[in-house]
Amino acid sequence: MEASKKTAKFFSKPLMHQNIKSNWVLILAITLVMILMGNVMNYAISMMETEKSNVDVTEYQQDFYGYLGSLAAYNSMTGSELSYEDFISGENTEAYEAAFEALSAQSDTEFSTENFQKAIDGLSLSNIDLEKYVTQFEYSYALAQQTGAFDGAELTIQGLLDVTFELMGVDSEMINKMSEMDTTTMMNQMYYTLAGLLPIFILIVILANGLVAEQVDRGSMAYVLSTPTKRSAVALTQMIFMIVVPLVVIGIVCATRMFTTTLFFDEYNLKSVAALFLGMYLLVEAISGLCYLASCWFSQSKKAMGVGGGLTVWFFLASMIGMFGSDDMVNAGMGVEELSIFNNLTIIGLYDVQSLGTVGTGDVSYNFVWKLGVLLAIAVCSYAIGARKFCKKDLPL
């Protein structure tokens, strides 16, 4: 009996078993939601990268336009009707060979059907329908023959687009910035600091409140303490539960994300994925510690939920608003620089996704080290203060 009391002074197996039994459905549901969200995001990013051309077709595009321009000039001189569509049909090869031979004789450039076909094949690697390139050339060629009726300025496709956007009230420079924006980085930022955090935030708020404050409020804590279980055992057992559960959930999500990364991407950096989820775990533990502290501090469930849950909601909302003040959003014309102040009003701002993403690359940014250190310190202090408060305070048992 004495040995049992000694063991219950630091850790209670029955209490841990009861915690798992009471919360396993919620934990499983949150884990499955996070797995689904993470892997859907992985698949979406892989599809976006697949749609992008990894081949530089600039040279092929220049050659292609050069051939189309030469054919347009040849048609103007001879009254012919040679075109890209006619060329790829392969029904009039001799006419194109004669045209290119004549064009080569009149210029320093060597034109041939083989080189034209080479330009077409190279441009086909861009994942863009060649008909769109032909259409763009048609507009560019037509405008190049014209100048402004009043100012005599050269007319171009880009100039036409800029004026059109301005008439619509859209800044053409913003459009250019949006086209240059790294959507993969943006989606990862949104996942790791917003979408990926919401489910586990809900989990830790519910768990922290239910493990201590709710039991005190309902009176069930009196039954727990009537057994050979010291307050220290209750505090430490609940603390261990709040440390282990997020670790297991995030570990499983990380493992599945790494697995699907190897499936969806030809090139991948698993060290970066691991670093990002390690940072996520430390962030979750910092907030978990604060929720645990609130649950140990207050004897009423509504007060503990109001403080712990309220802080969590504020951190999440401030991070969401602050994202629209980030450099990427501002540069893309979709954000407001003044909103960046909200990133300083939430501890989620200490979760530096960009610098953590450089782990495993040749140019690692170590800005995340001190930030993760602060998150770890918040977690340790919150758990320690919460446990001590629970052991010392008067309980309405």
Structure explained in plain terms:
The model is unreliable at 1-5 (pLDDT under 50). The two termini are 24 Å apart. The chain has 19 helices and no strands. α2 (13-51) packs parallel to α14 and α11 runs parallel beside α15. The protein has 397 residues and is an all-alpha fold.
Q: Keyphrases for this structure?
A:
mainly alpha; 0% strand; 397 residues; elongated
The averaged pLDDT comes out at 84
H/I helix tally? 19
Largest sheet: none
Q: Report the sheet-strand fraction.
A: under 5%
Q: Which radius of gyration do the C-alpha atoms yield?
A: 32 Å
Spans of at least 5 consecutive residues whose pLDDT stays below 50 are 1-5
The rough form would be described as elongated
Structural class, please? mainly alpha
Termini Cα gap: 24 Å
Helix content: over 70%
Order of helices and strands: HHHHHHHHHHHHHHHHHHH
Report the count of strand segments: 0
Offer a concise description of the structure.
The protein has 397 residues and is an all-alpha fold.
Outline the secondary-structure elements.
Layout: H1 2-7, H2 13-51, H3 58-78, H4 84-89, H5 93-106, H6 113-123, H7 130-144, H8 157-167, H9 172-180, H10 183-195, H11 198-211, H12 213-218, H13 220-226, H14 231-264, H15 270-297, H16 301-323, H17 327-331, H18 353-356, H19 368-392
Helix pairs in contact: 2-10, 2-11, 2-14, 3-6, 3-7, 11-14, 11-15, 11-16, 14-15, 14-19, 15-16, 15-19
